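Q: What structure does this chain adopt?
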Amino acid sequence: MTANLLDYDLEGLAAFCERLGEKRFRATQLFRWIHQKGAVEFDEMSDLAKSLREKLKTAAHVQALPVLSQHISADGTIKWLFDVGGGNAIETVFIPEDDRGTLCISSQAGCAVACRFCSTGHQGFSRNLTVAEIVAQLWFAEHFLRKHLKQSERVISNVVMMGMGEPMQNYSALVPSLRVMLDDHAYGLSRRRVTVSTSGVVPMIDRLGSDCPVALAVSLHAPNDVLRDDLVPLNRKYPIAELLEACKRYLTVAPRDFITFEYCMLDGVNDTPAHAAELVKLVHPVAGERAWSKFNLIPFNPFPASGLLRSSQSAVLAFSKILSDAGIVTTVRKTRGDDIDAACGQLAGDVRDRTNIQARISKRRTIIITPENELTPKGREDIVND
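A:
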């Protein structure tokens, strides 16, 4: 089998070229052709020696992912469904804005974290994506958009690892993929404009801080462990206190001076003033400590299997005001692409589940709010039809 060159960061490509008897600068040339110019045929790469081009024809290829479908939203958002083999398909979303172009990239076929409010989690988990499969999403989108928009300059300015999957559970492929995105010989993205979103895999947050610090977003969604255990099962392994300490450690190397906390607003579940007050206590800086957190409130995008409802606009605004009045930078995410199921939490693709997710979800203990505003387990009598 020949090597897919999308599977290599620059160091990996240099090692590959050395195995072919070529010098490092050839890897840099090859890297530019693939990522900056979108070339797939080695004969196109005119500044490579003919002898190298002949070697590459027998030892390598540049293979993107087959596109199964493309949907364009009324607001300009584009969603692609890519075939990753074995009956699995993943989704990638491009979100155009006046001052940026953001690509939301998947890291796994499915997701094993199984958050209650996430459509991907309800599909289960099949496998991790390879470096080539992660990078191919950016490679395809960037060069498709340049051609579609008739632009020679870079179209995608921001990448968020917020698509299908938990990126930190595919760490060995995540870091080389990030290095390709950041490399000036490839896409040249700023560390501040590449964001990894995690449900809270604490050891990997520390490793990312050492290996490739980029912007960090944490899917929090609850102000206490009892509620978060139900919404984000990973919390049972890495509870909130451990997660927040890891976030503070990450700040010492992060390209931004804050950590973004994502908070999906669920009607009657996590959106009360009492919940907001709990969050303030969690992240409010202690004496002598600077503000270090930003909250992004996300209107829930309902899907039938969740049984959950979106918080009302008045509840979201009241929640936001409590955080803002406490000095916490708070934004409410604008829903984009919901008419094509491309909004936050809606990406589901097509996954051959290996985790028996539906049985696990049906057995999960759920949470209700008592009249006294205390959180209590309700056993197996679900308040939602999971």
